[in-house]
Amino acid sequence: MSEEWQYASIVSNIGKWAWIIGLINGVISIIFGIWFIGQALYLSSIYPLINWFSFTDFWYVIGGIVLILLSLAIIRPKFSNKCADMDWDALYEWYLPLGSFKLPWMLLWGIILEIFGWYGWGGLAILIPAVLLLFMGPKEYNWSTEESKPKPKSKPKPKPEPVVDTEPESETKP
User: Which residues have CB under 8 Å from 113's CB, separation 6+?
Assistant: First the structure.
């Protein structure tokens, strides 16, 4: 795009760091998950009849691994590099077609990183640029996969002419 967009620098700066923010979020999540599991193991050795483990402890580790993998495999090449290059058209064309609806992948990956992230701040680095791009971007985002072409108007069918009987009917009475 030749003209400069008002939010181009904000979206570019946040977007190019999104994969690093997701990576840091994943590492912090793993560290805290391991710390909480270690605390549970220690407390279980002191008070063996009480279960100190929770699903959250393991979720932090699983979520951290998922965040690191997604940040390196998907966010960096598909989102962050495009934001750094200010390639808005490539981000507009990166969508999941659902029937006639286009769901932008950047929204989907931002939500997934929110779910797996440590208190949800990992996905914000994707969602903030995505929302700015989709709703206040350099061009309007088309949410439909079908082109907005006007349908050709069909020619109106000619009305049939009424049949006029020129001969009078003979009335016969029995």
Answer: 22, 25, 67, 70, 71, 75, 122, 123, 126
Neighbours of 76 (CB within 10 A): 18
Q: Model pTM?
A: 0.74
Q: How confident is the model at residue 149 (pLDDT cuts 50, 70, 90)?
A: very low
> Is 135 exposed, middle or buried, given 0-12, 13-18 or 19+ CB atoms closer than 10 A?
exposed
Determine, yes or no, domain membership for 100.
yes
Helix orientation angle between 105-116 and 18-46, rounded to the nearest 10 degrees: 20
Residue 159 inside a domain? The answer is no
Looking at the 3D structure of the chain, how many domains does it have? 1
Q: Quick one: tokens of 167?
A: 């001969």
The parent domain of residue 81 ranges over: 8-136
For the stretch 108-125, pLDDT in tens is: 999 999 988 877 788 899
Average pLDDT of the segment spanning 49-78 = 90
